[in-house]
Write a structure and sequence with these properties.
The chain contains 14 helices and no strands. It is mainly alpha-helical and 296 residues long. The protein starts with 11 loop residues before the first helix and ends with a helix.
């Protein structure tokens, strides 16, 4: 005898009531600020002068000026290098490598390595930035002091290798998230799969390529989405270089800050943030398309 349930456990009306607080929170703290920033980007609002009191609607003039600005093109180029080096090559691959290496390691080694990596993540970003300034400083930095002891000349890292310096800083800072996420993904693999591979004599590389990698691919894509967007919008490198020298580390986040709060062009800065939002949506859409193609 087939049993039929006419009344669901939770009606649509009850579900809507439970979801309402979340929807209100998203609307007030996410949707409304985003729409307000888009509107401000269509005006000539400034933080000083007559435009601060009586802003004028200028349409897409700010967006046209931004797209023609060579400094914006420079910041996009530097940000692309920064995201590629820090997020995709640095955090993603290094986090996956650490997770795989620690997967079968038990005992104090696992605890020590995990604690060191997580410690770099939970320390406040301002503290981490000043630690790296002290480490890479040309005159008094620990790295150059060590090089001098070894008879090697000191290097002005922030001047000679500015992008590489902030890539290493952000990779050291953010690898823990990738390691934790990939470690949790590896724990979802049934142990019998790997035990069968051991029985037939599969190498560690074959186990990773043919078993681990296909099963955790959705988690890798999720990780790539998150760290790409976070890295694209990160502001921490400003604490190391201030965008210099000569705009060599002028990320789009720093470019936005400089125009909005240093040059007081709030409308212009809001237009930049709108463009950044559009870029983030495009990146997320590309990753989601890759994820769907991978599942198919």
């Amino acid at each position: 005898m087939r049993m039929q349930y006419d009344n669901p456990i939770l009606s649509r009306r009850a579900a809507a009531v439970f979801a309402l607080p979340t929807l209100v929170f998203i609307g007030v703290f996410l949707a409304f600020p985003a729409l307000w920033a888009i509107y401000i980007g269509l005006t000539n609002l400034r933080l000083t002068g007559i435009s601060a009191i009586q802003p004028r609607f200028v349409g897409f003039a700010n967006f046209v000026s931004i797209l023609r600005d060579s400094f914006f093109h420079n910041s996009l180029r530097i940000t692309a290098q920064f995201v590629l080096g820090s997020a995709l090559i640095g955090q993603l691959l290094l986090g996956l490598l650490l997770a795989v290496l620690l997967y079968n390691v038990k005992g104090p080694i696992n605890d020590i390595v995990s604690s060191i990596v997580i410690l770099a993540w939970i320390i406040p970003e301002v503290v981490v930035a000043y630690l790296w300034v002290a480490f890479l400083d040309y005159d008094f930095g620990l790295l150059n002091a060590t090089r001098n002891l070894l008879g090697m000349p000191a290097v002005n890292w922030f001047f000679s290798h500015p992008v590489l310096s902030i890539i290493i800083f952000n990779t050291w800072r953010g690898t823990a998230f990738s390691m934790l996420l990939m470690g949790a993904a590896l724990q979802t693999i049934p142990p019998s799969f790997l035990e069968t591979a051991d029985v037939i004599g599969a190498s560690e590389w074959r186990k990773f390529r043919d078993i681990m990698l296909p099963l955790i691919r959705p988690h890798i894509i999720t990780n790539a989405v998150l760290i790409t967007i976070w890295t694209f919008n990160v502001f921490g490198p400003f604490l190391l270089t201030g965008g210099g020298p000569a705009f060599a580390t002028d990320l789009v986040s720093i470019y936005t800050y400089r125009n909005a709060f240093k040059y007081f062009k709030l409308g212009y800065g809001s237009a930049i943030s709108t463009i950044i939002l559009a870029i983030n949506l495009i990146l997320a859409s590309v990753y989601m398309k890759l994820a769907r193609r991978g599942r198919a």
